[in-house]
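[job 4417] fold queue: 2 targets
>>> target A
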Amino acid sequence: MTDKNTVIIDLEESERTQTGELSEIVSVEASGVLSVKNVSDKNRIWNVRVHVAGSRDKTSISEDVIGVGEVDAGGTWQTQYQIQIDRPILTLTETFDTCCSVSTPEAHWAYVHGKENPVRITLRVKNESDGQLDALVINKTVPPELSNIRIENVQSGNASFDESLRVIVWKDFIIYPHEDSVLTVTATGTVDTTDPKNAGEVSVTYRGESLQRSSLDPDLTALTDFMTGI
């Protein structure tokens, strides 16, 4: 790398989604970090400006030009921003059937008190984007009412049940654009009260290396010891 290529502008964006009891989207929000990295090991840059005119719509960035100032050799400057989005790039649907031995159009939702209930949990994740999603890790908390946990079928990747943590871990797979993947787990449900029961939380993390939630297309100008306008 030469002194003519000393600056990198990097965007790292993330999204967070909360779903309800019926897998409906309750909230979705996105945020990002814009970084200016001076990768030179000897030259500082100053009078740095990041230009985002025409691409900052639906972000919390309020100016067309962001004044950065000075970035030392090997240093990094960062700023955070929020992004307005309507839907996430990955959706999760969970079906919790409390009597999977009886086939019906819709899943059963109630336990039979004092009986062993054949339970099937189905997790489906879908890539809603035009890019590939990887580094997926799905953690499903198993409620205390369930025993005899068994991975019935995993469409892709690897799934296991951590008995000490009572968590089903599904990972090591890729979802291609507009495709989905399914995991099914069976168990035995036993309840000794008529109180409502929690089906257990599900958390999902994933990465879209080439995907961007905002439309930001930043450019940069600065002064260095050798040149102006990077």
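>>> target B
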Amino acid sequence: MTELNRQAATIERATLGMGCFWGPDSRFGQLPGVIRTRVGYAGGTTTDPTYRTIGDHTETLEIEFDPEILSYEEILTVFWQNHDAAKDRFYKERQYISLLLYHSEEQKRIAYQIKTEQEQILGKEIQTEFQPYTVFYCAEHRHQKYFLRRFSKAMDSLLPLFPSDKAFVDSTIAARLNGFVREFGTLKDIRAEIHHWGLDPDNEHVLKELLENIKW
């Protein structure tokens, strides 16, 4: 239900690889301005990768965000401050490399600028691989909102609000709660933020009542 999601006049996208995609999904999902997140595979050449047959792709996180609330610069700062991008060797070849897929020449320009700034802060040469975005393959459902799915009682309350598992995965509330269960943000923060999502009063009430009654 898009009417339960944060509304935005403009939506931009960031696609990043920073190791196993479960953790970044939680870390970025709790940021105000993020509308939805999904995990998947990108950066390679093989078609239709899966977790078992990933080929030369990398585990990646795709973020849709409102640039009026959260800037691409801020996203990249979180990106580089929360994984070791100075490594030039990675476990399982390309699956867990540091990867940035830019969606425009402006994103590319900003990325190189922030990279230089972060190298000065970290005192290390960043080895992140840069590529233009071409295609993103969504990962299997079991990997989407991985940590939130471990709370079966909460899932029993959440899933009936959405017409499909995909709609649940793409929801703002799932992104926030997937961050909350990893101790990124609080339920109080989410309740306060919902008022600014541009929802009609009935749908705002639905989400606030959910947060009031949800069991873990």
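[job 4417] complete. Note on B: The chain has one domain: 1-211.
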